[in-house]
Design goal:
Blueprint: E1 4-8, H1 13-24, E2 29-33, H2 36-49, E3 55-59, H3 65-73, E4 80-85, H4 103-119, E5 128-132, H5 156-177, E6 182-187, H6 203-209, H7 217-220, H8 222-228, E7 235-238, E8 241-244, H9 252-265
Helix pairs in contact: 3-4, 4-5, 5-9
The structure holds NADP nicotinamide-adenine-dinucleotide phosphate (NAP).
NADP nicotinamide-adenine-dinucleotide phosphate binds at residues 8-9, 11-15, 34-35, 38, 60-63, 86-89, 107, 132, 134, 188, 190-191, 193-196, 217.
Length: 270
């Protein structure tokens, strides 16, 4: 695999771990990050252990569709071979993005949706695309109206789960529409990262009692790394396993409706 691998959220726990693993394998990586100073520090840290690493940093705020468009526009056709949609967030309250979407949906779904669609013309037809989902997808259902939760429908984990479920739906529909692409899903399990600090009073207690039981970011990112190296698409990587897509997620009619509803909200060509 020559050409760069885009890793979004490369400043995060699993994003940085992924970049370091890929760099150690000699893969050139494009770190797509919203905070350039933080990205520079992560890059310097990785270079201290992997001096030959080929790491480029570019700015990308997934909560901003104009930032996504600018990032995609600047990608030179043929320069990138894979996209790892790793960035994610669990917003602590209801916050609209600059485009008017609820922030958790903006970062976990609309941003990666538009980024992926815009990059399709720049990526090889058999590019690898890995989308980071979550076991929480299995706890929720999804309808078109849920893409834009109202403030009174917001819940920290419920909204996050539906945003990840929408990303999962997008992945399956993408694979149907572009069968040469290798689109895979990665589920890291529960990982001790900043993300699982939900802003509750008992977070410090959870740090002591719960986090030690969670996976490390290095362990959590392994399914995604295997997905990024996969020869085939349409698989669900979780733990040490590479599974068929779980049956509870197979609903082509739903996926087509979610795709169409998203296209109504976001123009790919604008
Ligand atoms: N931790 C878990 O237990 C768990 C479980 C299942 C799935 N996941 C998924 O795994 C992925 C990585 O999570 P993690 O645990 O490594 O979380 P993390 O350490 O909090 O990292 C999240 C990354 O996303 C980036 N990000 C947040 N908002 C962004 C935005 N608007 N634009 C661009 N980047 C943005 C963050 O950038 P900043 O550094 O600028 O904040 C950071 O690099 C996420 O998709 C998450 O949903 C995590």
């Amino acid at each position: 695999m020559n050409g760069r691998i885009i890793v979004t959220g490369a400043t995060g726990s699993m994003g940085a771990a992924a970049v370091e693993y890929l760099a150690a394998e000699g893969r050139p990586v494009l770190m797509a990050c919203r905070n350039l100073a933080k990205a520079g520090a992560v890059r310097a840290d990785i270079l201290s252990r992997v001096p030959e690493a080929d790491l480029e940093i570019r700015q990308l705020d997934l909560a901003s569709l104009s930032s996504v468009r600018a990032f995609a526009q600047a990608i030179e056709p043929g320069s990138v071979v894979a996209l790892f949609n790793n960035a994610g967030v669990i917003s602590k309250g209801y916050h609209p993005s600059e485009d008017g979407f609820e922030n958790t949906f903006a970062v976990n779904y609309f941003g990666p949706w538009l980024l992926t669609r815009l990059l399709l013309t720049k990526l090889p037809t058999d590019a690898r695309i890995v989308n980071m989902v979550s076991l929480t997808c299995g706890f929720v259902s999804l309808r078109e109206s849920m893409l834009e939760p109202r403030e009174r429908d917001f819940s920290q984990l419920g909204t996050y789960a539906r945003a990840k479920r929408a990303l999962l739906s997008f992945s399956l529909e993408l694979a149907r529409r572009y069968p040469d692409l290798r689109v895979n899903l990665a589920d890291p399990g529960i990982v001790a990262s900043d993300m699982i600090d939900l802003g509750h009073w008992y977070d410090p207690l959870a740090d002591v009692l719960f986090k030690p039981l969670c996976k490390t970011p290095k362990a959590g990112v392994q399914p995604a790394l295997r997905a990024l190296a996969a020869a085939e698409g349409n698989r669900y990587y979780v733990g040490k396993k590479c599974r068929e897509i779980p049956r509870r997620y197979i609903d082509p009619a739903l996926d087509a409706r979610i795709w169409a509803a998203t296209e109504q909200l976001i123009s790919v060509s604008a």
